[in-house]
Amino acid sequence: MRFIDQAEVYVKGGKGGDGMVAFRREKYVPTGGPAGGNGGKGGAVILRAVHNLQTLLDFRYVHIFAAEDGTRGGPKNLTGASGDDLIVDVPCGTVIYDMDTDECIGDLTEPNQTLVIAQGGKGGLGNKHFLSNRNRAPEHALPGLPGEEHSLRLELKLLAEVGIIGLPNAGKSTLISVLSAARPKIADYPFTTLVPNLGVVPHPSGDGVVFADIPGLIEGAHAGTGLGHEFLRHIERTHVLVHLIDATAPDPLQNYQVIQQELLAYGHGLAERPQVVALNKSDAIAPEDLEKIRLDLQPHCNSHLFTISAVAQQGLEALLQPIWMALDLARKQSAEANSVVSVPQPLLSLSSPVE
Ligand SMILES: Nc1nc2c(ncn2[C@@H]2O[C@H](COP(=O)(O)OP(=O)(O)OP(=O)(O)O)[C@@H](O)[C@H]2O)c(=O)[nH]1
Ligand SMILES: [Mg+2]
């Protein structure tokens, strides 16, 4: 199964309508003068972020988005109709690149945020416009201009604030399924999860927080082994990581270290991201063995090591507390940082929501 979080699309603004050559013809007015109207403006292609889309899957089937052309001017000075704008919905978190220059031209993060990606062409002037003292009967009009065209690459970086990571089979999908309404596939073999699953977990404030169950990482993930690099890219934008370790695995400590190593090797600050570490599957292991693993592992963790059973839903409340604390702190810090850092202007104008 291919993971769709990138898509290539071609967008084209509508062509402006042609200007018209026409003359007034009225009874008893022998030389009526030019009366050809201007062509209408072509429609624009506008990308709009919506919260009810989670993937770029739709773009696998439709790649070409062309807005409507303006119609040509009419006689009696009638301006042609403008072409309708074409609004293309994308998931929140879609980053837009120009394929020709590889330049980032926009980043749609908030619901209803829009980006005019291809302007429509202007309508051509009708012959009335060319009336002058020297030319009382202009016989020409201008054609409409073509709309802008771009080949774009859309990239979706999931906007989950909390990422659940760990080796395959650690119980990540099980955890998200008990914390949220998400119902991902769960199975006792590695790489069950091939695409990140999102789930909304209720925050004590009453708000919902998006968690992402990231497909299992393995050694070498940072260099592209397994589904690796793809998914590390997705957790770049999370504020907090929940690192799950299978307590029933032959060597939980080594499992922990493999993931830490991958985060470090990938860079982008992932290794410094606040991490809540938990040993999972406590129901399936004798208490004394569990204690031994805990003592083994705790000195290597920077924070408290939690013990949970996702299946038996034990220890989950305690696990959520440090997640909310770390998240609230990270949100505060990022709000402060955003208020001082000036964001580079995108190439094309980001506009307010479309009416
Ligand atoms: N006994 C026990 N088994 C669990 C627990 N959590 C998960 N499992 C089992 O562990 C297996 C793997 O669980 P998943 O949730 O699919 O694991 P995952 O980390 O999402 O795995 P990948 O998607 O392959 O990376 C399944 O058979 C689960 O039923 C737990 O708390 N206790
Ligand atoms: Mg899974």
Q: Overview of this structure, please?
A:
It is a single chain. The chain is an alpha/beta fold. It has two domains: 6-156, Spo0b-associated Gtp-binding Protein, Chain: A, CATH 2.70.210.12; 162-338, Rossmann fold (3-Layer(aba) Sandwich). The protein is built from five helices and 15 strands. The protein has helices at residues 172-179, 228-235, 252-266, 287-297, 316-340; strands at 6-12, 45-50, 64-66, 86-91, 94-98, 104-108, 114-118, 149-156, 162-165, 197-202, 208-213, 240-246, 275-280, 305-307, 350-351. The strands form three sheets. A six-stranded mixed sheet has the order 10-11-9-12-13-14, sandwiched between helices. It has a five-stranded mixed sheet with strand order 3-1-8-5-6, with no helix packed on it. Helix 3 links the parallel strand 12 (240-246) and strand 13. The longest helix is centred in the C-terminal third of the chain and has 25 residues, at 316-340. It is rod-shaped, with a radius of gyration of 29 Å. 44% of the residues are buried. The site of magnesium ion (MG) has 5 residues, from helix 1. Residues 166, 168-174, 186-188, 190-193, 215-216, 280-281, 283-284, 309-311 line the site of guanosine-5'-triphosphate.
